[in-house]
Amino acid sequence: xxxxxxxxxxxxxxxxxxxxxxxxxxxxxxxxxxxxxxxxxxxxxxxxxxxxxxxxxxxxxxxxxxxxxxxxxxxxxxxxxxxxxxxxxxxxxxxxxxxxxxxxxxxx
Length: 108
Prior knowledge:
The protein is mainly alpha-helical.
């Protein structure tokens, strides 16, 4: 003989409650898509590493420059990384991620 525990009552949701919740989830999804856009991540990393490598290139000793056959490779690589990072961030600013299209209603 097993006893059936009382089933918890599920709250009753109205159509407006469901629609509001769907709208909130869609806006959170669009925000997450903008935050985790690869252009932002790649551009940010290239700018940070570009600054580090450029500073290293500016402070390189003459012996390090001579080792690279007279080319300050850290300076030029750092500047290139900075330019690439700025390109990605400018691309993100000029062409932002479009918002998702609203779902079509059934029967339309």
